[in-house]
Amino acid sequence: MSIxxxxxxxxxxxDLERHDVLLSALxxxxxxxxxxxxxxxxxxxxxxxVVGDIHGIRVRELRQHAIDGGKVVATYCVFVPEEIVLAxxxxxxxxxxxxxxxxxxxxxxxxxxxCALIKxxxxxxxxxxxxxxxTSHLVVGETTCDGKKKMFEILSEHQxxxxxxxxxxxxxxxxxxxxxxxxxxxxxxxxxxxNEITADKLSQATKKVxxxxxxxKRLYELRKANPVPISGKDxxxxxxxxFYDDVDRATQQINALCDEIEARVSQGIGVFPGNxxxxxxxxxxxxxxxxxxxxxxxxxxAAVVCEETCTGTRLFSELVPETDGNLDExxxxxxxxxxxxxxxxxxxxxxxxxxxxxxxxxxxxDGVVHYNLQFxxxxxxxxxxxxxxxxxxxxxxLRIETDYADEDTGQLRTRVDAFLEMIRG
Amino acid sequence: MSIxxxxxxxxxxxDLERHDVLLSALxxxxxxxxxxxxxxxxxxxxxxxVVGDIHGIRVRELRQHAIDGGKVVATYCVFVPEEIVLAxxxxxxxxxxxxxxxxxxxxxxxxxxxCALIKxxxxxxxxxxxxxxxTSHLVVGETTCDGKKKMFEILSEHQxxxxxxxxxxxxxxxxxxxxxxxxxxxxxxxxxxxNEITADKLSQATKKVxxxxxxxKRLYELRKANPVPISGKDxxxxxxxxFYDDVDRATQQINALCDEIEARVSQGIGVFPGNxxxxxxxxxxxxxxxxxxxxxxxxxxAAVVCEETCTGTRLFSELVPETDGNLDExxxxxxxxxxxxxxxxxxxxxxxxxxxxxxxxxxxxDGVVHYNLQFxxxxxxxxxxxxxxxxxxxxxxLRIETDYADEDTGQLRTRVDAFLEMIRG
Lengths: 425, 425
What we know:
Strand content of chain A: 5-15%
Number of helices of chain A: 19
Order of helices and strands of chain A: HHHHEHEHHHEHEHHHHEHEHHHEHEH
Helix content of chain A: 55-70%
Shape of chain A: globular
Oligomer: homodimer
């Protein structure tokens, strides 16, 4: 199997030497951060398996899909409408963007003052260490931040890239622009795949993606239980994997996990001591394998019960209305759904402040940790408003700005300990 | 006069103590950077006077305009259509954003990883040291970068702010969005002023603004002469002052300066030794009193002959077609003109690369210095493409990333000296 993988990676143009370093570093980290956890749901076994073979089976599936004439569309952001990609019998896969290893490669080209997520994703391509991007026929970017918007121009010298324009405001004109962009994207995907997107196909694809959203919603609902039935680290891994696993299999595995967790809840089984402070994490996305903050929080005795992030609620909380209506009505419903995401790229973005307060109450958290990737201007500025809003609501807040490096781990542990101490009173 | 000024500043809510520190620091710097220059055109006397009384006469004019029932609109960016503001008998004034002094004030609120221009402008309001923003009735922001886009949300807690959405791409849909934004801006300004913008008023205002653009074009054309008839520092000051001086007076003064420079050119009078390397500066805007890079370059023996920046060619190189046509045709012509600005906020933005090469040739420069304000993602990423483009064109490039602080001046001088040495061969 491993030999087959190496041959596949070679055929994909992977830098095997570098790639060996990457994988040999990942598995001990996973061992330490994940497998060391006590009393995990058995359903996490599937996700452990996925990470254990992270560049194996799934890449093989994508490659087989390509060999059979299908197309693979790689993305970085929750704004790219997967419904449209699936409706053209293409596969959408979220790209690797969570390792410090690839950051150092990217810094040979990109400005150092760029967020780790952007540098990491670019480094995966530049260093030829990501079989997902190597397998993909088109990278679909968006304009949700300056760093990504301009990085895609440089990336396009290495890989076919198409950029969707996400507007800056949510006015009628901005919504019209986004609707035009979604319509244009449909044509781009039809041209890429040679497949026509019919009302029927789009309606089926929409249901598929909604089913995964419903499964993730179900998982998050279960995290409200006392005692907390699943760790924040495990829940985060589930959303991370759902970005690149087969949509039906992900839905099925998440629901199987939820069945088990429901039983745990009814039996009062938890994974943290009853007095563990409950934390809502809000802010920048955490791409696999970025588990840094969750690991620090949960090894410090906290229980992360919700993420108001693009690798959390922003990924699944809004559904697309399912209609068998005509194609354009469905496209409009899809465009409208994505414009309901309260991303910091929009100005103003007060609804995100409302979301954070609402989630903090719904999940009965003891505090919020605002997570900001260094050099991410939109979330860093919004953190000023988040701080004021939570202060007015009387909800404790810890503002963290960090990257993928380990240098600040000790300092972060100290600040997290002090925060939890303060919460515990 | 000075006593009158102090009373006016007090009435405007200026923090007099802080403001004294600011002004007392500015004048010696101006003495050192500007008045120390040899053989300057006499026409610069007007601009010296403007700086010498920077928060005096002009503020008094704006205040009188307000007392007479007029409105003052403050801006940060070349994308806000001044034609529309003038057509409603309002005055548009570019805001102070070029001092390190106000940066330190802003850092109490804004993320430190924000470009100096944004921090400086915010600090002027937070610290109550800018009589222009104190005099203004509305601040008009835009979405040209993440930092400003989100800063305006925080600024709006201190001052009425309206944000125009500048799109990210230049597709037909994006252009339609911008046209809608310009139309909406017209309504905002009509509501603010209570004055209707008629075709006639807009046509007159367009001519006024075009006349200033033509005067600046004329000044820049004269900078192509050998020997170079005016320093880059002086030319930069002229564009900086044109952001907030009365449009007709600015046009008249720039043209008077050009008359004098034309005579100099015909007499072969220059301000640099004949062998001074000619430099094109390209990149981030330089808000008054940010003269750091030009001073370093010209005291090192270079002659800055052109700026491909928002305080340079991007401010004036495109004219609005002058028609007495109907109002909406004029609005469309205005919207179209602003979409021709090749700002790094757009993706892709290849036309800016073409502009840099074209200007380098037109001005027969010996090298280009790419100026990037630290933490400005759009220009920092575009610098990667600028470097490649100039390398292919065989034009020497020096990439500078800096801020408003003095700490790196020595290091910059060393790098500039090495660059000029290399150019001189």
